[in-house]
Each structure stands twice: as structure tokens, then as C-alpha cells.
Amino acid sequence: MGLFASYDIEDVIAEGALATVYKCGQASTKQPLAVKVLSQQLLARHPEIADRFTRDAPALARLNHPNVVQLVDLGVTGGLPYLVMRYVDGGSLKTLLAQGKLDLRRKLSIALHICKALGYAHRNGVAHGDFKPANVLISSQGNVAVADFGFAGLVDTLPNEGGPVMGDPHYLSPEQKAGARISVSGDVYSLGVVLYQLFSGHLPQQPLAFPSYFDPSIPDYVDKIITGCLNPAPDQRFASADVVREKLLDAMWGAHLDETRKKAVLEGVDDIKTRFAVLDIIRQTPFGTVYLCENTVNHNRVIVKKVIGSLQGYKEANALCNLNHPNVTNIYSASKVDDDFVIVMEHMRGGSLKDRLVKPWEWRHALVIVKQISQGVAYLHKHQLAHGNLRPSNVLFGANEVKITDCGLAHHYSEKQNPANWYAYPNEAPGPLGDVYAAGAILYEMLTASAPLWKGGLLVGNARFQALPDAVQAMVTRMLAQVPKDRFRNFDEVIVQVNRLINPNSDKPARKPAAHRPGVTALLLVCLAISVVVALLYYVPDLADTAVGMVKTIFRLD
Questions:
Q1: How do 454-455 and 402-404 pair as beta strands?
Q2: Which of 242, 276, 316, 414 would disulfide-bridge 119, Cβ 3.0–4.6 Å?
Q3: φ, ψ for residue 328 (rounded to 5)?
Q4: In this structure, how many other beta carbons lie within 10 angstroms of the beta carbon of residue 91?
Q5: Among candidate residues 37, 66, 86, the one where a domain is terminated
Q6: Are 486 and 457 within 8 A, CB to CB?
Q7: Prior bond of 452 cis (ω within 30°)
């Protein structure tokens, strides 16, 4: 098989009616991988799956989240579609549940990370369709990652006499058992079943008992959240896994974190200790940590960001403490200790733009977002601040608005990431025109679900880009001009162009109502008078004779 010229087979991990999964090493790097090859028998029965794979699988490869098992390659070999994933060197939740050794804190942590993975996919319009404990992988370091996202959608077909092609019936929603297609709502039900089993050790049965019936130590909020997922009516369940995650965070109060990790955020910053409780750790790297906290006085959520070993961005954060704009995240305080500093800022519940880039955006919708980004950056520039680090991860969503964050902060790549920075032109120093370029790169990625590609000094637009209206292509190309002076001079010009594209009539002078134009009123009155006279002369003959006589008398025509 041609596929395995690039991958060295080490073992067969699993084999079933749908696919065979191999543990492989990459021939060039020896990196451990898992390769899933679809069954030849499945494709013989359902040849339409091959077309579906070609159409939909590339979007799955763009799923990129710490709690999602990432696809690193895909293709077709010998007529058989295959998916290559990172290998997780641990076991599955199914194995851990069989062992029965998880304490409450660990169960809460697993539940939260599962919700993060599913919620990320749901924001990008991807439903899992076959969510079960066997698809929740836990590494030897304890990291949680959900596998097989979208696989059910690739091989899903109409139910046959043996039931649905995809899905363990213990975890399927009632509507999916009845033949409905996979959906976010169905995922929420499957999530409820998995959480019920995680906390109680049992699968849910009717009549439904609370999980705490089996384990009295389970908090009431867990009972309520799980039963909210298991409602038989799809429209009565939680809307997505993101909602379940929010419910957990509101109720857990950081119960899934050990005390050592929670105290780490408070070290060295005395004013934080008395005012904030740690709810979650959003991101942790050698360069710093981002915490979700709650103000213990007013119960508002905030983000506490600790930057380690660098003061880059501290000056900007300190300046923004005294500034306010609807498209810039509010910073409440910034304080430094030696070469570290801490920023306390508002929490944006909608997550980042980075988490919404799996599929291309409709161009008008993308421009609405870019307009808000532009308004925020224009405000920074008017206060002599360049962002210098504009990228999708620094564009955040609230309930009804978009805000930029992390002005001036350095962006660090982990060793596993591609070090190329698509959001800055190579070797160009940060500045206002660099921010214009970054906004153009963000817009290009939103419109095409890919990064800008340059060849011979020219922007090479892919098929999606070339299908856009010419004026949209021209705007993006100008924002991404390699020579800074060829770009828009500032974000005010970008905003004007966005307005023209969204509403082509926005810059045309409005026509005055007819009644207010000079001379129109008089002309209308004259026409009305003539019409009345003609009508009278036509319908009243005697009046016509009298009028003629008066005219002759006045002008002495006899």
C-alpha cells in the first residue's frame, strides 16, 4: 500500500467494520502516529463515502485545539481514504471507567476538558456524532483529548435493517437512534450519557435517577447539569457543549484544580489574593499562564495573565488601564515584579477568532468582524500605541461585540508549532502599517480557511479567494501589500472601504425628498390647479361658457 511508504507500521490498534487503526512511526521523523484506514467493504456498500471524504475531510484537518486529537495528514491510497492522527500514549476513558479509580476532582477535570473539545468543534459547525468513552483519550501525563471528530459524518448513511451505520446505541440520542443525522444536539445528549457514566459508574436508565443516587458525594450541580443534557427533546437540552462548560465553571468554583496550581496565580501579587478566586487554567506555557478568575466581591469573571521573563507589553497594558473603547478589552490593572508582570482584564465568554476558523466565513460577515477589529486598532493608533501582535487568538468575542487584546505582547511558538508568523511581513518592524498587514492576513484566513501564500512577490489567491467579488479581493490584496506604502495608510481608510463593500450606497449623497427640493412645491401646486380647472370645464359646460365670456370681456375680444 502506497501509504505505508511514508509510515512504518508498528501495530494494529483496532479493527472493525468501518476502519482499521494502525500505530505507525513517521518514516522521516519517527514520530508516533495513529493511521485510520476506511474499510474496503464499507466503501463497496456505500461508495458515496469517498466523495464525502474528499469534500469534508480537509476541514477536519483544521481542527486545532489542546483537547482534540489533531489530524496531521489525510488522503486516499489504493482507493481507500485514510486519516493520520497524533498518537496518544495512554489509554481511553473507557479503560479508566473500568478500573473505577477516579476521584471527584479528576472526574470534574475530565468533564471540563471534554466540554472544551466538543464546544470548540460545535463553534466551528462540526458535530462528533459518535461520542463515547472509547473516543476520549488520556495521555500518560493526564492530558485529555477527544478523537474521531467528524469521522461519523464522513461515513454516516441512512439507517439500514441493522440500525444506523455509525454509533454505539448506548450513547446515541433518541432522535439519532430513530435515523436522524448527527447534530450538535445529539452530541450534547451523548455528552450527558458519558458524564453520567463518568460520575455514577452506570449508564442512564429509565426512569432516570440522579448520578448522586449511586454516589452521594456527587454535588447537586453535577446532577442538574447532566440531566439537562439528557432531556429526550432536542430543543430542551443545553444548546451546545460550550453551555455545559459554562455551567460547570460557574458551579465548580475551581474544584477540579489542586490547591498548589490555584495558589500559583496569586504568588507575588498581593492585591489579587484578597479579591479573586481561580476558576480555571486556560493556557500554561514556559512563558506564562492565563487564568480564569472570579471577583469575590462583585462575582464578575476576569482573566489574570502572568507573563514570565519579559516586560514586553507591560507599557501598553499600563497605558490601556486608563483608556476605554468598545472594541478593545478592558484592562483593570497591570503590575510587575522584577522581569515578570501580571495583567487583570475583562473576560470575553465567546472565546477567540482562532477557535472559529475551521471553515471559510461568508465575506460580508467576515467584513463586519474586521470592521470591529479595525475600530479597535485605530483607537490604539490614535493613542500612539501599535498592537504589534494582531492575530486570530487576540481577537475575542463577547455577547454582541468583538474586541482585540494582548496589545504589545510577544507571541511565543511551542516547539511543536510551525514557527512561521503568517500575520507579519518577514523582517518588518512592528508598527501601524504592520497592523494593517496583520488585519489583512486575518481577513484572508477568514475568507479562505488558509494562510496567505506569496510567490514571486505576488499574493497567490486560492480558488476560494478568486471566487470573491473583485472589490473584496482588491481590498485584501492592498492590506497585504508587501511594500508598506502601498497599503491603506491607516485603519480609518480600511473602515471606509469596509463600509463601501458592506453597503455600496453608504457613501452616496442621500436624495432630498421631492417636497423639499426648490421649485418642486410650486410646480406641483400649478399642476394641481390646472387639473382642477380642466375637470371643471369638462364636467360643467355652463361654467366653461361663462369663463370664455369673462376672458372676452377682460381682453375686449368682441
A1: unpaired
A2: 242
A3: -130, 130
A4: 15
A5: 86
A6: no
A7: no
Grid coordinates belonging to 10: 508498528
Sign of CA dihedral 136, 140, 144, 150: negative
SS3 97: helix
Nearest residue to 197 via CA among 122, 96, 67, 129 = 96
**CB within 8 A of 371, min separation 6: which ones?**
495, 498, 499, 502
Residue 462 has pLDDT above 90, yes or no: no
Whether residue 522 sits in one domain with residue 495: no
From 60, 86, 112, give the residue that closes a domain.
86
In this structure, the answer to whether residues 463 and 537 fall within a common structural domain is no
CB 172 within 8 A of CB 183: no
Select from 302, 309, 316 the least CA-distant residue to 341: 309
Note whether 358 and 449 are within 8 A (CB).
yes
Q: How would you list the strands of the sheet with 19-26, edge to edge?
A: 7-15, 19-26, 32-38, 80-86, 71-77
**Residues in CB range of 184: below 8 A, 6 or more apart:** 122, 127, 239, 240, 241
Distances (CA, A) of 515 to 355, 521, 531, 532: 53, 6, 19, 20
pTM: 0.84
Helices (H) and strands (E) in the chain, counts: 19, 17
Residues spanned by the domain of 203: 91-252
Length of the chain: 558
Choice between 514 and 86, residue whose per-residue pLDDT is larger: 86
User: Furthest-apart CA pair in the chain: how many Å?
Assistant: 125
How far apart are the C-alpha atoms of 334 and 344, rounded to whole Å? 6
Q: pLDDT by residue (tens digit) across 253-287?
A: 889 988 877 777 666 555 555 678 889 999 888 88
Same domain membership, residue 497 and residue 359: yes
E strands present in 274-357: 276-285, 288-295, 301-307, 331-337, 340-346
Sequence-separated (6 or more) residues with CB below 8 Å from residue 525: none
Residues marked as catalytic = 130
The predicted pLDDT at position 558 comes to: 45
